[in-house]
Amino acid sequence: MTNFVIAPPPQAAIAVSGDSKTFPVRRIWCVGRNYLEHVREMGNDERAPPFFFAKHADMIAPDGATIPYPPITKDFHHEVELVVALKSGGLHISAERALDCVWGYGCGIDLTRRDLQIASRKKEQPWEIGKSFDHSAPCGALAPAATIGHPTKGKIWLSVNGTQKQTGDLSEMIWNVPEIIAKLSMQVELASGDIIMTGTPAGVAALSPGDKIECGIDGIGTLKVTIGEPA
Ligand code: MN
Predict the structure, then answer these.
(1) Given this model, what pLDDT does residue 211 score?
(2) N or C: which end of the chain has fewer CB within 10 A?
(3) Rounded to the nearest whole angstrom, what is the distance from the C-alpha of residue 210 to the centroid of ligand 1?
(4) Residue of 198, 203, 205, 149 whose CA lies nearest to 174
(5) Measured in angstroms, how far is the CA atom of residue 66 from the centroid of ligand 1?
(6) 28 near 106, Cβ under 8 Å?
(7) Which domains are seen in the chain, by residue range?
């Protein structure tokens, strides 16, 4: 047994469909601006390549969670995304070998404090305040690639209180999954337990306490969360 001076924090994990075992999470990486229609709706440069930012592993929230409306924002947005879960990693992974690292896929939401994200962008400050906060990475049960393969197309959608808000198709991603893994592994060493949220299609919008969100990706999975009162 290792000696710690305080009790070690719990291991973050995501449920796996059809399995009582869970997927342990090491790091959460996110891709920014990976669908053209979302780049356009945000008024960003269509020619600029996607890029990466991070959330912390303990910001995962499970399917069915009630997520408290977060502090210090007045513009709290949903971004439905394909989640890629890695079983192995490395530095400088080629796109040709990248899918060998993938354990499975899921549907997640990159919850965003949009007002703070935009304010930090204008001030040339980091994005943490807009992207990295408690419960900001809800994720539905993962489906193993051994069962579903490696989907390259399929509808991705999100509704709020039964009204569809976001819709797109995985085939519209500017960087596909092998390219994302190859690019990200040029800047950090990836490892088993890492997950990547791969960017959101158009239709992002503000949420309020009481909102019921349902989202999914055809052939992969679904996720439901409710927005609660501020903590
Ligand atoms: Mn996003």
Answers:
(1) 98
(2) N
(3) 22
(4) 198
(5) 20
(6) no
(7) 25-228 (3.90.850.10)
- The Å distance, Cα 16 to ligand 1 centre, comes to 22
Q: What is the pTM for the complete model shown? A: 0.97
**How remote is the CA of residue 204 from the centroid of ligand 1, in Å?**
10
CA of 31 to the centre of ligand 1 (A): 6
Spacing, Cα 81 to ligand 1 middle (Å): 7
Contact 23, 13 (CB under 8 A): yes
Of 145, 137, 88, 94, whose CA–CA distance to 112 is shortest? 137
Quick: pLDDT tens for 19-55. 999 999 999 999 999 999 999 999 999 999 999 999 9
Q: Which residues fall within 8 angstroms of residue 224, CB to CB, at 6 or more apart?
A: 63, 64, 212, 213, 214, 215
Alpha-carbon distance values, 4 to 8, 10, 13, 36, 64 (Å):
7, 13, 21, 47, 33
Q: How buried is 143 (Cβ within 10 angstroms: 0-12 exposed, 13-18 middle, 19+ buried)? A: buried
Q: Answer whether 165's CB lies under 8 Å from 76's CB.
A: no
Q: 79: CA distance to ligand 1 center in Å?
A: 5
* Ligand 1 midpoint to CA 8 (Å): 30
